[in-house]
Amino acid sequence: MLKLHGLVTGVMLAALSCPLVYADGNLRSRADKHAPAALMGDHIHKPGEWMVEYKYMNMYMEDNRIGSRTVSDADAIAYGATSNPITNRMATPTQMTHEMHMLHIMRGMTDDITCYTMIMLPSITMDHLRGPGAGPMEGTSFTTHNSGFGDTTIGALMRLYTDHNDDWILNLAGSIPTGDIFRTSTIPTGTATPLPYPMRLGSGTFNARPGLTWKHYWDFGSFGTQLQTDLPIGRNYRNYSVSDEFRLNQWYSHLITDNFSASIRVENLWRNNYGGADPMTPDMGISTNVESFRGGYWLNLGLGTAALVNGHLLNVEFVPTLYQDLDGIQLETDWTMAVSWSKSF
Fold it and tell me: For the chain, does the N or the C end have fewer beta carbons within 10 angstroms?
């Protein structure tokens, strides 16, 4: 996997040395003015300027993984040890689709400060296979769904340094717990059962989300690197806290023309396990209730394009997961897709 990471880095460095040169103009008004579609918090606006963005993201997960090894549904149901409850005795997840609709509003306050907010509407669907704990229904499948408002993000982007080719931007952001974290469903058992952790719409806590971005522009394209975090503060009213999250991204966007670009991105993502426990999510029923099965490491590759059409920026990115090493047993991530439209005025 290190060889693959080195190959991707080599491709990015080779692109950086490309001798093609395009019309200069304002380096921050071209198709590569924003980061690839799955990222945020990378640019600022002029004083008094507004930006409205709609972003759609879809993450698809199928099959379970123990560490870095994919396992069958039968092995997922049998997972456990004499020192542990058999966590998938009632059922195992087999597939999940996590969609997110986002409304992003930004306003330039000064030359170096831009404030923003983001409203999120997640829609989560998970398929399951019943295990031996389900009695006569063993081997049958069922699907649960949850949707509504997620947590709301507010923040300020502060440009720490700028010159003709460079921007250093500090992201001082946080989230407000507007997403519901306790809904029940009668589908699995016939009685009202709380939905497991991955199907909940928010964190239930105020979260700090500091980040730092560096972008460098050339006549022919741009390079960026970003560290972004998501850190819950304390525990929620269900007595748990979600994972600390750290994302390190590097990308290169190459201009085909001033109004059309292509990008390649490498993302390293780390999460730790949950702290505390919701008293109504017993570990013995299903792995998605287990707080110590929420962490891991993911290596993702982003391939994207962006088009600037009459002041409208259209941004698309497809992100396959190259490698993942997960704590306990979890659904593995196959790919993520992000599509956005934005307009500044």
Answer: C
The one-letter amino acid at 128: H
Residue type, 53: E
Least Cα distance to 291 among 252, 341, 328 occurs for: 328
Q: How many CB atoms lie within 10 A of CB 239?
A: 12
pLDDT tens for residues 82-119? 556 678 889 999 999 999 999 999 999 999 999 999 99
Residue 280's CB is within 10 A of a number of other CB atoms, namely 11
On the CB side of 32, CA atoms within 13 Å amount to 26
Asked if residue 179 lies in contact with residue 149, where contact means CB atoms within 8 angstroms, the answer is yes
- Count the neighbouring beta carbons within 10 Å of the beta carbon of residue 345: 7
Question: What's at 236, amino acid-wise?
Answer: N
| Distance (Å, whole) CA 78 – CA 124 | 25
Rounded CA-CA distance 218/156 in Å is 26
Question: ∠ CA 25-29-30 to the nearest 5 degrees?
Answer: 90
In a 3-state reduction of DSSP, which class is residue 10? helix
Residue for token digits 């593995």?
332
Q: What percent of the chain stands above pLDDT 70?
A: 91
> Of 273, 89, 142, nearest to 197 (Cα)?
273
Q: Which residue type, as a one-letter code, is found at position 324?
A: Q
Q: How far apart (Å, rounded) are the C-alpha atoms in residues 293 and 276?
A: 13
pTM equals 0.90
- Tokens read off for 37: 């579609």
Cα distance between residue 43 and residue 51, in whole Å: 11
> Using the 8-state DSSP alphabet, how is residue 31 labeled?
T
217 confidence band (pLDDT: 50, 70, 90): very high
CA distance 218 to 18: 11
Tell me how far apart the alpha carbons of residues 252 and 261 are, in angstroms, rounded to a whole number: 10
Tell me if 55 sits within 8 A of 261, measured CB to CB.
no
Provide the residue type at 306 as one letter: A
Counting Cβ atoms within 10 Å, is residue 49 exposed (0-12), middle (13-18) or buried (19+)?
middle
